[in-house]
Amino acid sequence: MASSGPASPERVNLVATGLGVVLSPSSLGFGSQTVGTTSAPRTVTITNQNVTSIVMGDISATDDFILSANNCPATLGPAKSCTIQVEFAPDETGAATGTIDISDEDPASPQKVSLCGMGK
Questions:
Q1: Which whole number is the average pLDDT over 12-37?
Q2: What's the predicted TM-score (pTM) here?
Q3: For the domain that residue 50 is a member of, what is the CATH number?
Q4: What is the mean pLDDT of residues 49-63?
Q5: Is there a domain that residue 11 lies in?
Q6: Residue 47: pLDDT above 90?
Q7: Owning domain of residue 102
Q8: Is there a domain that residue 29 lies in?
Q9: How many domains are there within the chain?
C-alpha cells in the first residue's frame, strides 16, 4: 500500500482460508418407498472450495439409507469435486430420517447431508 509516510510502500501480509467443503444438495427427500425395496440412487456432489487439497475420510449413511457409490479420491484437490450416491431402503412403514456423514480435513468436518423418506 503506498502512502506519503517514510516507510512507503507499506506491505500487508494476507492470509486466506478457503471457503470449505460444499455439499450439493445439502438434503435429500426420497418420498415414499415400499418397505423391503430400494429406491433409485440419488447423487450428492462434494466440492472442495479450499485453496489446498483435503484428505478425505470416512463417508457413511445412517439408518434406512445406503451409501451405494463413492467416487471420491483419498485426497480431493482445490476446486475439485467428487460424487457419492445414496439409496433409501426402508425396513418398516412410517417416516424415516438419517444423514450422510462426511469426514475430511476441512475444519467444518464432519459435514452432513440430511435425508428423509417414507416407508409404505
A1: 82
A2: 0.81
A3: 2.60.40.10
A4: 94
A5: no
A6: yes
A7: 23-119
A8: yes
A9: 1
The 21-24 sheet, strands edge to edge = 21-24, 42-48, 81-88, 65-70
107 Cβ contact list (under 8 Å, min separation 6): 20
Query: Are residues 19 and 107 in contact, defined by beta-carbon separation less than 8 angstroms?
Result: no
Alpha-carbon distance values, 54 to 3, 10, 80 (Å):
40, 34, 10
In the chain, the percentage of residues whose pLDDT exceeds 70 is 85
More confident residue, 107 or 4: 107
Residue whose entry in the numeric block shows the C-alpha cell 483419498: 74
pLDDT at res. 105:
87
